[in-house]
Amino acid sequence: TKPERYQYSFQQLAHNTHALLASHGIARATIMGHSMGGMLAMRYSLMYSDAVEQLVLVDPLGLEDWKAEGVPYATVATTYQAQLKTSFDSIKADQLRSYYHGQWKPEYDRWVAMLSGMYAGAGKERVAWNQALTSDMIYTQPVIYELGLLKSKTLLMIGGKDRTAPGANRAPAEIAARLGNYPELGRRAARAIPDATLVEFPELGHSPQVEAPEAFHRALL
Prior knowledge:
It contains 11 helices and 4 strands, in the order αβαβαααααβααβαα. By secondary structure, the chain is an alpha/beta fold.
């Protein structure tokens, strides 16, 4: 659901996930997260290490601290106004740049339609508001400083052409240019996480599971 009032934090979302698993009698599981879900998966593992069989991170956000790097803060109200302008075209443009490094295939349209559909009908204001709250959460709650505390066996999967950096459009050009360097961020994170295995996909972007599912699943499984 998209609540009108909610204190979004990765700790709260990790608690929710743990409660969901417990409600199904699952005491231990492989936790896998992509993008923002990667930040959540890391927080989950930090909070509930005994409940994690292994951790799988696919191009996770949070491998750098954008505010420390110089990305200016945007208020929730400002982000909300920007989110209200979200459309199929704006999502596609963002994914073309960050997810697929300028190479688009028709089969990617379904994922854009899924996201843009939330902004197209009744309730779009609530969706935009929740997106603004979660964007603030991503910016203000970095996990990078705790990578060394992760106790779970970790598989880190990184697209070599991924350049995702939330808020980089707000930063000065010289700062934006150095953000989202996932090959370097992934290698740095793999060195910081005590029991990590790094898998790199040099020719893929932010969503390797969509861009090259066969290669992704070979590496995963």
